[in-house]
Design a protein that fits this description.
three-stranded mixed β-sheet, two-stranded antiparallel sheet, 12 helices, 75% helix
């Protein structure tokens, strides 16, 4: 299937994406802003992946998951931001196949990140609460299995959401008031009762969003309880600082995605504009912040990067 039906029986082969704004001056400002964010995203995550691959000291479970997260962030950002930048320069159309692909890929990568963040929280929980058994519990086999489950669950859940969303007939319009093809936007454009589709998407969101977010909160709660018992105030402060940074990015990501995918669809134009702003927060911001918050401030990563620079540039 490469086209979807409208309410009058005709077929849609392409859509017009309105983007973030119609203001020419604001478009230039946003173009520069998002271009800088995209470049920082690529550089930050590429540094982490390179350091992880090249430095044996980083071949640990924590950096294995961080490497997966950086790969996810590069792919996630690259699936959305370049097309967003093009929209800010010229009004863009997108084919039905392109729209379906963008919807699936963004859901796949976003869903995978939801589960991966929970797995990373579990990894930190084991490292802090059971430090002596950490290497035994988080063995190579366990790490690979957990990472594979993250990617597989994201793929299956996104396939369900995309398939059922694209079955809906649309209300005689080819215009999408957004900068990307997204499930809530299509539900808003549908001409039939969407209750059944909403329930399917809600059920998927419980597995891919709610359960991982609850699991993450529980893991960090146990971590905080353990940190409080640390006698050294310096060590306690350092651990709290790390956890706080992680919780900030996790809260931004989970809260914005949940607000989009776990509430009834509204056809109010003001809500549509709010949704576009919310979408920016979970599609553009986390991929840039993740490497900064999770790793680039880390002493081991800094040392690994400095070692690479000296090895390949100064020698």
């Amino acid at each position: 299937m490469d086209r979807t039906k409208m309410n009058n029986g005709s077929l849609i082969s392409e859509f017009l994406l309105l983007g973030l704004t119609e203001d020419p001056d604001l478009k230039i400002i946003l173009f520069v802003l998002f271009l800088v964010i995209y470049i920082l995203t690529l550089i930050g995550n590429a540094i982490l992946i390179t350091a992880w691959i090249c430095d044996p000291r980083l071949h640990t479970p924590m950096y294995f998951f961080l490497g997966n997260l950086s790969l996810l962030d590069i792919c996630f950002s690259s699936s959305i931001v370049p097309y967003m930048l093009a929209q800010l320069l010229v009004r863009k159309t997108i084919s039905f196949k392109g729209c379906a692909s963008q919807m699936y890929i963004s859901l796949f990568l976003g869903g995978t990140e939801c589960v991966l963040l929970a797995v990373m929280a579990y990894d930190r929980y084991v490292a802090i609460v059971y430090p002596l058994r950490y290497r035994v519990i988080m063995s190579t086999f366990v790490c690979i299995t957990l990472a594979s489950c993250c990617w597989l669950s994201g793929s299956v859940m996104s396939l369900l959401d995309t398939f059922f969303t694209l079955q809906l007939p649309l209300c005689g319009t080819k215009i999408i008031n957004n900068f990307l093809c997204e499930v809530p936007t299509f539900l808003r454009m549908a001409c039939v009762d969407i209750f059944a589709t909403e329930m399917i998407i809600f059920s998927v969101a419980i597995f891919i969003l709610v359960i991982p977010s609850v699991f993450t909160v529980i893991s960090y709660s146990r971590i905080i309880i353990t940190i409080v018992r640390i006698r050294s105030s310096e060590a306690r402060l350092k651990a709290f600082s790390t956890c706080a940074s992680h919780l900030i990015i996790v809260t931004i990501f989970y809260s914005t995605v949940i607000s989009m995918y776990m509430r009834p669809v509204s056809k109010n134009s003001e809500t549509e504009n709010q949704d576009k702003m919310i979408a920016v927060f979970y599609t553009v911001t986390p991929p840039m912040l993740n490497p900064m918050i999770y790793s680039l401030r880390n002493k081991d990563v800094k040392m690994a990067f400095q070692k690479l620079i000296h090895k390949h540039i100064f020698l």
